[in-house]
From TrEMBL:
<protein>
    <recommendedName>
        <fullName>Lipoprotein</fullName>
    </recommendedName>
</protein>
<feature type="signal peptide">
    <location>
        <begin position="1"/>
        <end position="20"/>
    </location>
</feature>
<keyword id="KW-0732">Signal</keyword>
Length: 126
């Protein structure tokens, strides 16, 4: 019985630390954001030009049409998950396919997607 209690305590401790790492990772990713919005793009290889062009086109549409009422999304950062980072983003955000984009507003994840057009759809629905 004592071992079972220790196992439960250990599991709760690990779950709490995992959540804490996720929150710290988000804080780190948005530490220099402007207008309370950041798009983080995770890749596992250099991004293809066609993807970058498509993403830029969609972000320009969002900003030029003023779909985000609070101001433009001006922070777009790329991270290669194979580069040494302060956090293990693949594990923290449970990523397995790339590119993987996370839209963060006011310190909270509001969208996770692999398709740039999903970002436009998110702001059109708001």
């Amino acid at each position: 019985m004592k071992r079972y209690g220790m196992l439960c305590l250990l599991i709760l401790l690990m779950a709490g630390c995992s959540q804490n790492n996720r929150e710290k990772a988000i804080e780190y990713l948005v530490q220099h954001q402007v207008n309370d919005a950041s798009l983080i793009v995770f890749t596992d290889k250099p991004a293809e030009r066609s993807f970058i062009t498509d993403l830029q086109t969609h972000m320009n549409y969002i900003n030029n049409q003023k779909l985000r009422k609070e101001g433009p999304v001006t922070n777009v950062n790329f991270y290669d998950v194979h580069d040494e980072q302060q956090f293990n983003y693949e594990q923290i955000f449970n990523m397995s396919t790339y590119p993987y984009m996370i839209l963060i507003e006011k310190g909270q994840i509001v969208l996770e997607t692999q398709e740039p057009e999903e970002i436009v759809k998110y702001y059109e629905k708001r």
